[in-house]
Amino acid sequence: MTHLKVDLCIIGAGSAGLSVAAGAAQMGASVVLIERAEMGGDCLNAGCIPSKALIAAAKHAYQPQHGAAFGVEDTTPQVDFAAVKDHVRRVIDTIAPVDSQERFEGLGCTVIRADARFVSRTEVQAGDTIITARRFVIATGSGPFVPPIPGLDGVMVHTNETIFDLRDKPDHLIIIGGGPIGMEMAQAHRRLGCAVTVIEGAKAMGKDDPELAAIVLDRLRGEGVAIMEDAKAERVSGGEGGAITVHTSKGRVTGTHLLVAVGRAVKVDGMGLDVAGVDHDRKGITVDANLRSVSNKAVYAAGDVAGGLQFTHVAGYHGGQLVRALMFGLPARARTDHIPWATYTDPELAHVGLTEAEARKRHGDKLTVVRSEYAHNDRANTEGRTTGLIKVMVVGGRPVGASIVGHLAGELIGMWAMAIANKLKMTAISNTVLPYPTYMELNKRAAGAYFSPKLFESATVKRVVGLVQRWLP
User: Which stretches make up the Pyridine nucleotide-disulphide oxidoreductase dimerisation domain (predicted)?
Assistant: First the structure.
């Protein structure tokens, strides 16, 4: 048995773990990084990267069929589904070196590829190595949650961990789960030539602003995705030729392939957390505002396993906060009010801060909601991307939330995320000069919509302007 004594032991080489490891090692700390599976974690290998690569391929399949409005004859492309998956793999392989074991060893980390479990409050065993560390960071992330639906264990079930390796095009893909992952995969597979049915036990995209979600769902239905809402999956059965039938409260659906996308489960099993005295539940490690375990002060958590928002960019943000805390002894102070997220359907849907419903509940009559329609944006009109809108929730001249549905919503939300993170006022947006014509002008138009009533509908302003006009030389 090998024994190592280091400043920092990190369990999990996903976004959070890699961020902490890179920062700490380059600042001179001794670091052990433990990963039992693939470097880069879920995002690189089975999440953000492969899903966006698949969505990109699907867009190329969709666009040739919709050129007539631009004077370009519609054509039906031939989709080579296996070649699409080759594209997905190439993208992963291109990015992988940034997250590789070799790179992190080059930065000075000791990388151990094995399962990790605590054997005491200050020791972790990984393979045949015992690591004693002053501080530990648990960044094991999450994996797909497969619900205990009767009959599910009798058929082939895909999750995000397997769907991107599927090289034969599904004739009819059934998706259980109408959240962001389910809807992204539904539209991508439909555009690549598959029949798709989504089964959702409540409302599809139910965590998003309902007005904006309806725009996305209308588009998906218009493209041929069947969406069953308020349809609980009660049992699953298999049939001849590999057919799969999902029996729901609203009838049954038979297809050739099944994808389950109902949520995520944090990875904490088998880690010996009880031995280490680390409090945890099904949501993850119980931490304080500084991402520190409430029961073992030598242990921190970051990313999905910290029990909060489950996004790669949140994991990276946590990693940066922990570098600050662990290297300089400063408080982490992780926030959530400025965290944006996006669903990469077409149109995209993005959000940061409070939704309209949340803002009305919290701020009441102090709230002003301003809107900016894609149809009024010149760039959107040149490209035929006029479906969509921006809603900004404003209190006391400061944005407290923004929701966007439309082309490039995931890019446009960045301006509002910056404004909320830095407590900027709406004047910071309205004073910004932007190149013309761009979609970014939608944000400025929204800021202008906040000030327009104050300028153009105010009797006081009109009186002042009248006086100035009479006396101005």
Answer: 339-444
One-letter amino acid for residue 238 of the chain: G
Interior CA angle at 421 toward 420 and 423, to 5°?
60
Q: Which positions make up the binding site for FAD?
A: 52, 140-142, 304
Residues belonging to the binding site are 52, 140-142, 177-184, 200, 263, 304
CA 243, CA 412: separation in Å to the nearest integer? Answer: 42
Q: Which of 449, 350, 340 is nearest to 394 (CA)?
A: 449
Q: How far apart are CA 444 and CA 133, in angstroms?
A: 50
Q: Rounded to an integer, what distance in angstroms lies between the CA atom of residue 231 and that of residue 198? A: 10
Higher-confidence residue of 454 and 272: namely 272
Nearest alpha-carbon partner for 326 in 20, 4, 19? 20
- The answer to whether residue 47 sits within a structural domain is no
Domain carrying residue 438? 340-456
Burial class (CB in 10 A: 0-12, 13-18, 19+), 437: middle
**Feature table: binding site for NAD(+):** 177-184, 200, 263
Please report, as a single letter, which amino acid is at residue 62.
Y
Interval 372-413: pLDDT, tens: 999 999 999 999 999 999 999 999 999 999 999 999 999 999
For the record, the structure tokens of 101 come out as 């074991």
**Same-domain status, 272 and 139:** yes
Judgement on whether residues 356 and 413 belong to the same structural domain of the protein: yes
